[in-house]
């Protein structure tokens, strides 16, 4: 099962592979991303029924080519034929996509990390329209033969890299494809898992001999086992042929050399293979020592009892798969992470995260090439020199030295993102070296870089180590890099399996190569998870080929499988779920109290220069109303001025001397009142109150003096309808509910589609039979449900906490709300189909809901009071109608017969918005 | 000394990062120009085109006179309706106001029988309902008085009320709107810019890089607070001078320097808060969601939109913990009412204390979580 020797393919082609009828044919295919050319006029026939390998470093166009063949990408120029039809033709694409399986690049890129293994498989199986029994049978079969069966309940995100890739393969194979497309399926996976992966592919092919497979890989040694190879560089095909043919043609012994020789001359100029002079110096001059380092995150042990000693000037390597604990160990050494247990020393001093001085002796280059992408190359270097306290007068000289040594002269003023990967990597090294550290810690510095640049990088490392006696601690998952180290440790699942010189390790295991030695150690350590129980893929149950549902235009099953998955994901994302459930209640509270137009408890004070019983009576009248609260009297104008400036008084009243006397004599007197005008709306209201109270007081006085003239010829009886106590909250709450039902569901739904775009799982829309409508409506459904739950919670809150009763027909409101929730989530979908980042989608959803609903839909001022564009937006915006329905049912005691006029616009809006969303969504990557 | 140099260098780096982020630059410019301008001018006058319907059961010269007294811009041209149309019109929101002039109104007035006009108000439209009621009462009464007094001398009321509004004599909305928007924007941008600065480092993986350098978490955090705070302070000052005082011609009152000092304290508190939120969020979108849940309460309940007095007691008390509440107090006191430090020193003190507490909390959380960010 674990035989990994190259060339072990189970089905050997009888005839020359190129002579077979092609499964895919590319003619004159060109793809440009902006200014960069990903594929330059490719002509290629991919033979069927065998394993075809696509080799070349990252960024040469392998992934682009595969996504074209899979039908996931829009063809810009040229012709792509797959399984006997044109992939530009959407009818052919729909018909063939159930026969193709595509596994995109990146560990578990098309998987859903919060879903369990079982749930992932169930989801894919449902997309292909399989019934419950068939699904069970297939999932059990596939997981048994891949050794995933014991892990069915584990979330995909918590699987090791190798297991993720196996799960990816299972998902791809769930529908018995005729053509399997694998994009770098084994990058970053340990060699044992890699070997097991290929065994699995071989088994499956043994069961389905007719299946064609195309694989992209950056590991040249792996390519040895494929039937036929396509070597690519810079968007061009360098050569095609069987591995043997390529080796013969270039006169090389291994494919890595063969590839370098196939490269055009200008690329290989100055290329020399890496020579490593022997290490000399004091054996006891120790740079790094670690004893029993252990790191636990919760109950997960990332690094388990690791010990090693590294001599000064040594190149020490850590070899292992993604997630085996290499990076964590390095972070502990730099002091980034405090070790749970154990100790480490740098230059004889114990590692202490607070020890600033030791940091200056260490240079660190992390996996992600962490450079400031907003600073130029030169600024990056200067900043790092300064932060490492290179003396100010030496900074320039030091930066120049680095620029020269690492060959960065041409790109000094460029931004890091705009320079080639190899150059960026040299810049990272320059940045890590700018303060001349004694120790360099490099975390997978060469991933994604082509072999020529990689060797150039290694020559720099060798020079640093041997000439400058810099100790280098490097991690890698490339065997040939590990072999170059003076000594190395093999790591797996947080444990160091063994440490020694690479040659000695090979010797110890009696293996032919380092890879074989590593696999030997892995098997010994129990890393053999394959534990295949003897079943082979050949026994796969043969079902009706490609169930009819796959071809149907609309399948409720596919739609529901998206709903089911979306609901599961939402449930497992704490931030989104909180916002979805608690957000509306919190915001309802805030808005209910915040958007209030009530003005009460206003502080006022009186400057009473009269001090008569009549003046006191006037002040008492003001204080007696519940709008005003009296403050200590004002002593003089200065006091009045100060207290109004501080905002203490909203109203100051001055009663002139002789007020009572003059009034009794029938002389006209004038009372002065100052209103704080800093808040105009409040001031208006205060003005109204004061005038009213003044009038009331006059009437009172008049009625006491019977001889005074009647004040009014008629009276106006104001009836505040629907809200007799004119409480703001009763007016606002029925409007706040639709407002929140618009904003939050729109935002959450907007994130849901763009998240898939950002994380990569949108690829499942491109390559599975699911249609755009099924995809969007399926995703929408759980959010509509959630919004309805929110609505019920908010209504309950309105009735209980806010005391706003429902006076009209609740079923009518429920119906309208259901329609409205479809609209609001539809708007979110629309926002997400036209944007490509989550931040942009959020922004769009916010602007598209908050602004029109808050300003133009009649939240505070009725639409009929608006003019111009605002009026037009208000007339067509669905929230306008929902506001009237909600207010109608809550406050105005209305029923269906009164409100049907407002419901129809909602009904009409649904197909318009959803139609636009579906129209803008692309079924292919452009 | 070395710490200070580190902070300055890191701060300069933050400024460069911001300078090369067009989206954020655009946001800053928009928030302090267009947004302030629209907030000032678009804020509707309290009564504008208020829809009114009139049931005229009298059909007399007086009632005709009343009907013709309503016209734009305060009211729409009144729609003459029947009693039954009145109820349905109010129900479906066609009118905010419906005036019902009873039969024989004019003759009753002339006979001194003090007839009653009914005014129906849709109280679900709070903004129009309240002010509109006052206006309508006044308009109708004026018309009746004028009708009756054509041949009589106007009688003086025994006591006159002379109402003046201080600080904004004509009660122009734009004065309030523009300054309120600046106050809101200061708080919002202070959170967004610092939060984004930290999350950007986290997303790009550069935070890990900083941590292996001889700089301390405190230096990293202070550099962000300092640089982003400076940007917000500068932008708000420019906006105050050029947009509010220049373009909108709002005569602000007190000392701008004192206001800016208050803004600086508020920014200190809000940037610290921004860092805190950024340690909670894992990505920009999560930060955005958190922002919605925190920024809206801060803005709506701090007294910048509606007066604090009208909120429930406990909301008022809780909001005393929010820096924005004190900043709104400071801003309104200084800019509108020309108050000096002798008047607003309590708010300054409160802001300083809140700022220090938030800073300490954020720093301790930042230290704790920073290693997990890498």
Automatic annotation (TrEMBL), chain A:
One Gene Ontology term of the molecular function aspect: ATP hydrolysis activity
Cellular localisation: Membrane
One cellular component term from this protein's GO annotations in UniProt: membrane
ABC transporter domain ranges (all copies): 24-259, 288-518
Main location: membrane
PROSITE patterns xrefs: ABC_TM2, ABC_TRANSPORTER_1, ABC_TRANSPORTER_2
Domain of life: Bacteria
Domain ABC transmembrane type-2: 687-924
CDD domains xrefs: ABC_DR_subfamily_A
Biased composition (Polar residues): 1-13
Membrane topology recorded in Swiss-Prot or TrEMBL: Multi-pass membrane protein
InterPro entries xrefs: AAA+_ATPase, ABC2_perm_RbbA, ABC2_TM, ABC2_TM_bact-type, ABC_transporter-like_ATP-bd, ABC_transporter-like_CS, P-loop_NTPase
Keyword Ligase set for record: no
UniProt region (Disordered), positions on chain: 1-21
Keywords, alphabetical: ATP-binding, Membrane, Nucleotide-binding, Transmembrane, Transmembrane helix
Transmembrane region(s): 731-754, 783-806, 813-834, 840-860, 902-921
Family, similarity comment: Belongs to the ABC transporter superfamily.
The protein, known as: Ribosome-dependent ATPase
Species for this entry: Pseudochelatococcus contaminans
UniProtKB/TrEMBL annotation, chain B:
Annotated signal peptide: none
GO terms for cellular component: plasma membrane
Organism: Pseudochelatococcus contaminans
Transmembrane portions of the chain: 175-199, 220-244, 256-275, 287-305, 343-363
UniProt membrane topology term: Multi-pass membrane protein
Gene3D superfamilies: abc type-2 transporter like domain
Protein name: ABC-2 type transport system permease protein
Lipid biosynthesis is among the record's keywords: no
A Pfam family recorded for this sequence: ABC2_membrane_3
Domain of life assignment: Bacteria
Family: Belongs to the ABC-2 integral membrane protein family.
Sorted UniProt keywords: Cell membrane, Membrane, Transmembrane, Transmembrane helix, Transport
Cell compartment(s), UniProt: Cell membrane
GO MF annotation terms: ABC-type transporter activity
Domain named ABC transmembrane type-2: residues: 133-369
